[in-house]
Amino acid sequence: MNGLESLYQELILDHSKRTHGKVLAGESAAADEADGSRVASSYQRNPICGDEITLRVRLSDDGTTVDEVTWDGAGCSISQASASMLAALIEEEGRMPRAEASALVDGFRVALRSRGEIPLDEEVYGDAAALSGVSKFTARVKCAMLAWVAFEDAAARA
Question: How many CA atoms does the CB half-sphere of 116 hold within 13 Å?
């Protein structure tokens, strides 16, 4: 393993242990709904390995901005780190235009399906760029995609 792969592996393990956006199970969106925010959640499960995630998206009342992403889940370090990295990416922006968030999901999907041919740009994806190497392992792509699919589904419902 070269130095960059080792660094990426450490970053993935760090995100899986010290997560961003993870909340206690049973968190209620009642307060958000009371203030007019558009809130939806999505439960996704990877039947191959058993990873599970429930991801909640809070959009601005006009639906054009992603205000917050929170999640709870269980599974391998890749699925947990990926959810943390997605939440951190949204959190770093403070608020992210919904169209920009959709473009991130699309780009992430393309890169992970590329079998290592298309790396994720670190300037665009931040820590999530560390997941580029996962694309070489077809069985692990679903683990990394789980939170991103849940985000896409929840944002469409909100």
Answer: 7
Residue 35: strand, helix, or coil: coil
Q: What pTM does this model have?
A: 0.86
- The H or E element spanning position 143 is helix 138-157
State residue 24's pLDDT score: 52
* Cβ pair 121, 32 in contact under 8 A: no
Determine the 3-state secondary structure of 87 from DSSP. helix
- 8 Å CB contact between 132 and 116: yes
The pLDDT tens digits of the residues spanning 65-81 come to: 999 999 999 999 999 99
Give me the DSSP letters along 11-33: HHHHHHHS-SSB--TT---HHHH
Q: E-assigned strands of 46-127?
A: 52-59, 65-74, 96-97
Q: Which residue has the tokens 């901005």?
A: 65
